[in-house]
Design a protein that fits this description.
Strand content: over 45%
Distance between the termini: 39 Å
Helix content: 10-25%
Number of helices: 3
Radius of gyration: 18 Å
Oligomer: single chain
Length: 263
């Protein structure tokens, strides 16, 4: 019975692609946690920093890691867990969680002829759409393979130093320092295969009561500044997409990077 229930949950996630909802992120129940209190982080899929929670399922990710107390370890959860991440006795300091999903497929069909254009524009990838159309390429009856590179930053106890770090995912957003150092802005570095990605868009979602979306662009060094008010939850999202060689099973491959933090 449990195996069947797990399979149903697995299929529900497979079928819930970005045609129904874009962003995938990790969201902490509390981003700043008192020492001695547990850290709990959810996996979420949705739009505008709101959406559905999904359980821990090992077959859905390539790696699920946490850096805490100066050490990085793989996270071993239990199938079906909600929230997906739980640490009952977290080490003091900054916890950096990183989730690298297995690939999924998105199909652009005639039933939703505007899906490709809508999706690319929403992610600030108008230049990809412009080139696609300039090359006279189809916008339906094609598919894309995509994977998620999600992070969450949680502060346990008072801030006493510590910084975000690259966690080895293909496409990754890295806060320079910590969002919990008392400042109301952070500098973000966008990395592709460990190297800075210049002049590239990052969507910024802030949640304090309602949700607001803005966009920043990295500079020539792959850096961008994000400002926020105290008491705000922040979600950063960026998508890298490339056209695959002619004759490939899929037309595009994409990587979706996200990082969340807040108070």
């Amino acid at each position: 019975m449990f195996k069947f229930r797990g399979f149903c949950l697995f299929m529900a996630i497979v079928l819930a692609g970005p045609s129904l909802a874009h962003e995938f992120w990790m969201e902490a129940k509390d981003y700043t946690v008192e020492e001695g209190r547990p850290v709990e982080v959810e996996l979420r899929v949705g739009q505008n920093f709101g959406g559905s929670e999904y359980p821990f399922l090992k077959q859905r990710f390539k790696s699920f890691k946490v850096n805490a107390g100066g050490k990085t370890r793989g996270y071993k959860g239990t199938a079906g867990d909600k929230p997906a991440y739980k640490d009952k006795e977290p080490a003091a300091g900054l916890q950096v969680l990183a989730y690298h999903s297995t690939p999924d497929t998105l199909k652009f069909t005639k039933s939703k002829p505007d899906l490709l254009a809508t999706y690319l524009k929403a992610e600030g990838l108008d230049f990809v759409l412009k080139q696609h159309r300039a090359d006279g390429l189809p916008e339906v009856d094609i598919s894309e393979i995509y994977s998620r590179n999600a992070k969450a930053l949680v502060q346990v106890g008072p801030y006493q130093g510590g910084a975000d770090r690259a966690m080895g995912m293909p496409f990754e957003l890295v806060v320079q320092g910590s969002p919990y150092d008392g400042d109301t802005s952070v500098t973000i570095k966008l990395l592709w295969q460990g190297k800075a990605m210049p002049n590239y868009p990052i969507n910024v979602f802030t949640k304090k009561g309602g949700t607001k979306q803005t966009r920043v662009q990295t500079d020539g060094n792959g850096l961008a500044t994000v400002r926020f008010a105290k008491g705000t939850r922040v979600l950063l999202n960026s998508v890298r997409i490339k056209r695959l060689p002619k004759g490939s099973k899929h037309f595009y491959e994409s990587w979706w990077a996200s990082t969340s933090f807040g108070w």
